[in-house]
Amino acid sequence: MNYSFLDFLGLLGSVGLFLYGMKVMSEGLQKAAGNRLRTILGAMTRNRFAGAITGIFITALVQSSSASVAMVVGFVNAGLISLGQSLAVTLGANVGSTFTMWIISLFGFKVDVSTVAVPILAFGVPMLFAKKSRTRSIGELLIGFAFLFMALSLISKYVPDLQSNPEMFAFLERYASMGYWSVIVFLFVGIIITMLIQSSAATFAITLIMCSKGWISFDLGCAIILGSKIGTAITPILASLSGNIGAKRAAIAMLMFNTAGAIWAMAIFYPFCDLCAWITERCGQGDPNLLYGFVNTLQDTAPDVYNHLFDGTLPADDANLTTMTRMQVSVSFGMSVFPTLVTTINMFLMIWFTNIYVKFLEWIIPSRHREEEEFTLKFISRGLLGVSELNIAQAEKELEVFAERVGRMVGMAKSLVHTKAGSDDFNQIYSRLEKYEEISDRMELEIGNFLKHVAEGRLSSTSKRHVAGMLSIVTEIESIADCCLGIGKILLRKQQANVHFNAEIYHNVDTMFEYVDKAMTNMVKLLSTVETPHESDIIVSYNTERELNNKRNQLRTQNITNINENHYEYQAAIFYMDIVSCLEKTGDYIINVVDVVRTEFRNNK
């Protein structure tokens, strides 16, 4: 056997370059689209058909159904879309995943892109140094495109040469001549290969090369591709492991859809392959079934020509080489028609039953009750990191929940002021306040780490400012939680000093709390529409902050007079002013959040 370990490493490296090329090309497209990519989310909420179209578009853009479905899993986890809406997007993602296959099919054999890959790099690399971020993104796109086809050429070079490795040829021939059982065997080969490399496009590229060399027939190549559609579901399933129930259901849905598509396609496999071959012929590309017979006949009748067919030593005008090239185009076209037809038919069949699927998924993966105060990030998870531009929407949703949770602490602090010192209720509320503050610390850390990982991805300049702004917002929200606990600690010291407030102090503190409540509610409202903040809400926030500052100044002035007139004890005045200062400081943190929204989001549209 002439296939060495070094050749095997070359094959692994070629597949790695292929995957890297896809990644670079995908990220270039994403950065060129920028934050506009996230506006596509609005289309998902209209109806199931709009969701399916959205899935097709996003998958064509990110060049991977696994990545786009992992993204959808994240959106379900984040509550941005419902489970029912995600199913339509998943169906569309399967159709969109054939976009890469068509790129390979249309350029892989009709044009020898490997020979022009370096000239493409000559255009792409200088664009990386351009001032405009969009130009740099297009440069990345071109570089990824060049890598993709350089890798395709290298895979063809390092795939084991069966004619010089008779042991491998005998092995393949044994499993390729069992009739329908061969179809089943190669279906599982497609599943396993795709699960290992986590890319149905890479599996397609390898299969296309095997078919184009006449090592396996067109129908067995289709079986591998059909298996790759099931194997590609492993990525979103892995991504959902750290997600919530909705995320797990969305991931399982992809596996169910792809498996269901494979089942009906296997039931009519040979007629369906014939249909794809007929479509290929009608499109003027020839019959994809002929290449396998042509190569085998050539091997039997003209072994010398066969031996020189794939090593590039035949003259360019040789009739056999011309025929072979034409048939390779036919095979590549037919192998793109097959998954496109399967996924499109599957989408139109399954899209009508999404509601039934939702009920079934809710039955097999039932919800589990979680306590309200249990620490968990509701909308984001490190395991769901995928498309950086789209992860931002999840982080924005988590910020809103973080603010709402800290907003409840303001209410707890107000209740604590009016709760009898030393009572069981006082101790219970204070313990709850401490627990919420501890949760807020952990949420700050988790959201901050998530945003840091998002920032390490490929982002447009606008999105980078958004991430920086959100990191600032996270810090300010956590400071609000610190202030709320600070009020609790002041009241605890007041209790230990056996100090009492009179009605005037309670009334003034309640007034300060009302301003803080108003400011906090308006801040949460702004965070809920952070991508499109309303000017009127921003104005309300600034007006409330001025009212809070004016009230603080007024109470400070009155406090001196009240002490002199013996309205309350001096020690009570100290605790009273400490609470007022804490509330005013809370207002400062709130307005800091509003400042970030105004400067980093509203002015960068």
Please tell me the overall pLDDT: 79
What fraction of the residues are assigned to beta strands by DSSP?
under 5%
Overall number of strands: 0
Query: What Rg do the Cα atoms give?
Result: 32 Å
How can the largest sheet be summarized?
none
Shape summary: elongated
Please describe the topology of this protein.
Blueprint: H1 5-33, H2 36-39, H3 41-44, H4 48-62, H5 65-77, H6 83-96, H7 98-108, H8 113-127, H9 133-158, H10 166-175, H11 180-197, H12 200-212, H13 218-231, H14 234-240, H15 245-267, H16 269-282, H17 290-301, H18 303-309, H19 319-350, H20 354-364, H21 388-417, H22 424-455, H23 461-496, H24 503-528, H25 535-564, H26 570-601
Helix pairs in contact: 1-9, 4-5, 4-6, 5-6, 5-14, 5-15, 6-15, 6-19, 6-20, 7-19, 8-9, 11-13, 12-13, 12-19, 13-15, 13-19, 14-15, 15-19, 16-19, 17-18, 17-19, 21-22, 21-23, 21-24, 22-23, 23-26, 24-25, 24-26, 25-26
What does this structure look like?
This protein is mainly α and 605 residues long. Helix content is 79%, strand content 0%. Helix 11 crosses helix 13 and helix 23 (461-496) packs antiparallel against helix 26 (570-601). Residues 369-375 have low confidence and may be disordered.
